[in-house]
Structure formats: structure tokens, C-alpha cells
Amino acid sequence: MNAITRIAAVADLADYRDPVFIHPEREGERRRYRTIWVSDVHLGTRGCNADMLIDFLDHTDSETMYLVGDIIDGWRLRRKWYWPAKHNDIVWRVMKRAKRGTRVVYIPGNHDEMFRQFTGMTFGDIEIRRKAIHETADGRKLLVLHGDEFDTIMLAHRWLAFLGDAAYELLMRLNVLVNVVRRRFGLPYWSLSKHAKHKVKNAVEFISRFEEVVAHEAAVRHVDGVVCGHIHNAEMREIAGVAYYNDGDWVEGCTALVEHFDGRMEVLHWADEIAARTAVRAAAQRIAA
Questions:
Q1: If you average pLDDT over residues 255-260, what whole number do you get?
Q2: Which helix (DSSP H) or strand (DSSP E) does residue 216 occupy?
Q3: Among the four residues 37, 141, 160, 267, which has the most C-beta atoms within 10 Å?
């Protein structure tokens, strides 16, 4: 059974009304947003921070949710099948949102490009699109796309992209090991790969150039801004009069982009959110003791 067939089998589970979660959904009040954007989850890899994403999904809700590509890592799954139960739990949570009435738009990226053939179709109440235009509460139009179409390495040298992906996988394995050790010492999550990326001059230059090219595309399309993923670098800034937003990833930074009901945009750094919540809980326990 190939990767896309196995993934389709996972999606078919949406026909059941009452899924049994390995990690049951948290009950209680959730933070509500008008819109949520997440990308680069890389389900099907060991680098995916599934526990943190489950925590995010259980603490937030929105009217609209955009899945901005690389949600499932088809590249890795074609080489070796890896799909733990918690990855099913993430798929279930997204599907359940769609069934509850949240508009869910899935824009496949380069790692899940096998789903691009279904552009324009709807599966399990989830719309599949190549790109989208989102209108904010304050009337701005934002182009939403994954961003790999502006990655010159991806377009011109596909073999080099695969080689880089293999090296990145090794760094992700080290990232997991580092954070296992940190947890044992009571330390919060820290991204080794993100730290390394920002220390390498060429990587920093690539990110800056990528952001400028994507913003230029938005200007050509006469929209007010652009939301993308792909480079695993959460960012909010203005480039030549265009609002550039990158929602980051759930491998390194564990971030999401959200729109408040007044149109205000914000990047949520979920590791910081969990750390703050843990600190409050620990302080309350000390007071109670």
C-alpha cells in the first residue's frame, strides 16, 4: 500500500461519528479567533511536535482555519511509513472542527503535493485549494499560499531539495533528542534547528529574499498582504507597502498565525504559551501548599 492510499484510509475514518482518541479532547473554554493559519506540521515524521499541536487545537477555535501546506509529509512517507496514533488524533481534531461548522481550507505544499490533484474538491467538509484570497475583518485582502513556488532551489534543482530534506531530517532527530534531555531537567521546549538556521548567514539571506519575492507577488496581484509557510520562520512585517505574514511551523518553532475579530493579526508561539501556563499552575500550587 503506497503512502497516499494509506493517508486516504486515515481520512476515511471521518465517516465514524464518535472517534476514540488516544489523546482525548480537552473539555472547557477555548480562545476564539476569527481565523487561524497553520502550516508545515509534517505529519508522518518524528520531527512533528504532535503533542504541542494537539494542545494548541484543544485550547483554540475559529470561524475559519487555513492549513497552509506541508501538513502531511508525503516525501518522508514514501520512503518509510511512520504514523503514530497521535497523528491520527490531529487529523480527527481538524475534521471534527470542519463538521462543527468551521470553514477549513487546505492548501497543499510541496511535501503534500500529492493532494494538489484534488484542487477544487471538498473532502470531509475540508476544501482543497491551490491558493486562496482571505478578507480580514477590517477589509484587507490577503493572498494565502504555501510558498514553495517561490523557492528557487525547489523549482530549479529538485534533487538538491530532496538532499536538503534528508539533512533536515537528521537535524530534526537531534532536535527531538535535545528536548527529551531538556524535559528531564525540567527545561522548556527549545528548537536546535531554528537556532542553527538563524546562525547560518546563507539561511538568513535566503529567508529575507524569499519574503521579498512573496511580498512582490502579492503586490502584482493587487492585494494588501500575503500569508504563507514553507520556510519554517514565523514573521509579521511590512515589505514595500505589502503586509507579509508567515505562520511558521510545528516542527521547529511551533507557531500559528491568528486573526482577531477586529482584524488584528498575531503570531502565537505555543511553546511560550505552554511555559506561561505551566508557570501559573506551579505558582498556584505553591500558594495552595
A1: 98
A2: helix 201-220
A3: 37
6: pLDDT strictly greater than 80:
no
The C-alpha cell that represents 145 in the structure block: 499560499
The order of strands in the sheet holding 255-259 is: 122-123, 126-128, 103-106, 60-67, 31-38, 255-259, 265-269
What mean pLDDT is predicted for residues 34-47?
Answer: 96
Three-state SS at 255: strand
pLDDT digits (tens, 9 = 90+) for 206-216: 677 889 889 99
Residue among 263, 46, 14, 39 nearest 173 (CA): 46
All residues at 6 or more sequence positions from 59 whose CB lies less than 8 Å from its CB, including other chains: 26, 30, 31, 273
- Is the pTM higher than 0.85? The answer reads no
C-alpha to C-alpha distances, 127 to 60, 79, 104, nearest whole angstrom: 20, 28, 6
CB atoms near residue 91 (< 10 Å) = 20
- Rounded to whole angstroms, the Cα distance separating 22 from 20 reads 7
Closest listed residue to residue 67, CA positions, set 59, 58, 76, 57: 57
C-alpha count within 13 angstroms, C-beta hemisphere, residue 54? 20
Amino acid in position 104 = V
